[in-house]
Amino acid sequence: MENIKSKVIILTGATGGIGEATAKLLAQNGAKLVLAARREDRLQSLADDILKSGGEAIFLPTDVSSANGMQELAQAALQKYGRIDVLVNNAGIMPNSWLNELKIDDWGRMIDVNIKGVLYGIAAVLPAMREQQAGHIINISSLMGHKVVPVTAVYSATKHAVRAITEGLRQEESPTSRIRTTNISPGMVATETAISVLPPEYQDAVAPGSGMALSPDSVARAVVYSINEPDDTAINEITIRPTLQEI
Q1: Is residue 20 part of a domain?
Q2: Is 81 part of the annotated catalytic residue set?
Q3: Measured between alpha carbons, how far is residue 122 from residues 61, 94, 166 in Å?
Q4: Which residue range is the domain that position 121 belongs to?
Q5: 201 confidence band (pLDDT: 50, 70, 90)
Q6: pTM of the model
Q7: What's the whole-number mean pLDDT along residues 4-9?
Q8: Is residue 246, in this structure, part of any structural domain at all?
Q9: Is the separation of the CB atoms in 103 and 97 below 8 Å?
Q10: Is 40 among the domain residues?
Q11: Residue 48 neighbours by CB distance under 10 Å
């Protein structure tokens, strides 16, 4: 994992299932982490765990739907470490519902976090990466960014948008700025966010150990793999699902 060692990596949604697993795995491999999430107490706890294990991490409570907040996060990374090597746009929400339920506030929040949050993250780090002529932006999309099923219409739309943004960024920046891009699309993952939105009768079926949901560690390994590849190699798209998942 030599290509991860000492890299400065910003990670949003750091205190959730995928985020926490990714933070710990990156720290184990020598990354310098800048952790972001809304809950300061959980950020502090995660950073403490990483430091106790010999890793390196700072944190800043951040709402990714705030452009100013994401700018402050990038500045914190630059002030501490002098550069930004990787941004992992992991923060996301999925309050799924039937469209006829007209949950307009939920729709707006998904757009704010899942789309604008990704764009604000890109805007915050792109100038530094262009100046460095190097960098890597990883966006966590979803299998629902490749398809749509009932109740996921708005969530799927946001994750389709993440894929489009990632591909557009690749075409615009990779040839000139050497900025790598990766879109990771997990299927069902055994996280609080994913399982809590399911009907109660389905929650046990996708609980950890059921075989019907990925461990967050599996997604974390995909993130680490994409970063660790040599700088002349870009892993642009990863789709990862439980072996037993049909859709």
Answers
A1: yes
A2: no
A3: 18, 21, 10
A4: 8-188+215-230
A5: very low
A6: 0.94
A7: 97
A8: no
A9: yes
A10: yes
A11: 12
